[in-house]
Specification:
Structural class: mainly alpha
Radius of gyration: 30 Å
CATH topology of the largest domain: Fumarase C, Chain A, domain 2
Distance between the termini: 38 Å
Strand content: under 5%
CATH superfamily of the largest domain: Fumarase/aspartase (Central domain)
Order of helices and strands: HHHHHHEEHEHEHHEHHEHHHHHHHH
CATH architecture of the largest domain: Up-down Bundle
Amino acid sequence: MGTKKPWSGRFKEATDALVESFTASIQFDRMLYQYDIRGSIAHCRMLKKQKIIAPAEAAGIIAGLKEIEQEIEQGKLAFTARLEDVHMHIESRLIQKIGPTGGKLHTARSRNDQVALDVSLYLRDAVIDAIRLLDRLQETLLSMAEKHIAVSMPGFTHLQHAQPVLFSHHLMAYYEMFTRDRERMESCFARVNRMPLGAAALAGTPYPIDREYVAQLLGYPRVTANSIDSVSDRDTLIEFCSAGAVAMMHLSRFSEELIIWSSPEFQFVELPDSFCTGSSIMPQKKNPDVAELIRGKTGRVYGNLMALLTIMKALPLSYNRDLQEDKEALFDTVETLKGCLAVFTALLPKVKINEQQMEKAAHQGFTTATDLADYLAAHGIPFRDAHEITGRIVASCISSGKTLEDLTLAELRKFSSTIAADALSFVTVEHSINSRAAIGGTARQTVKIAIKTARAELKKQRRFIATAAPSWHRG
């Protein structure tokens, strides 16, 4: 394979080996080879259609590109820093295979718009993969919510017992979070799905190219509108990393709860042995490493987003070499997010829910105190006064070691003559939960409706993959 630079004509000195190593990106952008070849084949077909190159030349180029793709897949193509990036490796190998005709492939394009296209193709697949993984996670959550619809637990604020809720209601809170993550990914896809090739270096090209034809070949519904913006825009990378950071935050919050819930102090859940590790010194330990790693990896995804924003914050138009630094942050976010979504979805169904412990905890911490205050308010006592009365009842219970459900009617009436026999039902966990029947509440029937509605919405959302995804990524 030749190592002559495609831009060497203007230079009198060879590139310093240290500079070659410093500026090379082949160590990470090699993963774009399939997208580079796919985009190059589409570009070549367009050049033939527009009679910019001859049909025989196009046939030779396309055959050569397909052979190179096989060589890379089989590990037969050696990569070197001297050729900087995957694009130059493929072009150099093509010229080596078919001769000077291979050099015609780069007619009417620049590495600037070539890179923009490769990353766009890659990111388009990444968004679809993320949506599919979110779909599986949401399906898992719905199945868990249906299975545990009868289980109560304490709802928390400030990590203190607040009010009783259904465990299914708690799970559905995460379903809603991941729905928003999915919506962000779908919105991002709409902007990723614009074809940038044809912008050339920054000003477009004088050749009679047909950008819409290339877009059609690659499954794009539209082309980018401005050549300068096409080669310098990295908004979609930032959008994906932003959406990925929010999704990782949601995974991290859920992971944190599993970590807390699996502790001896809570005992709400038991994590499967197959997703935990032990200690090298303490034989009794069962560590929630998967959940902890997800929590930890969230930080690196945040860092990738900040890196991209920092790279872009002061770049003049149009292309600058700083933009080479965008790929590692993007690639790492894509792989980290996909890995975390996959492992977390595999973990959840294997988590053992300690229903009795959750139910027991739901009755602790005076979680129905608000219901008693609401009862008093409903009987004409101003809520602030009802709040104070209930607070005194709770204080009395703490002193006597009782719960609200332990109190007799006579004991309750010591604090307010407004309290009647029906108040006893207001302080039960079951009544507290089922009284909150408005949309979005924790009442069992309301949660059942929420699960049913979510299933219908999830089925509808799946149409996005079938309609928006490029043809080679459907199925």
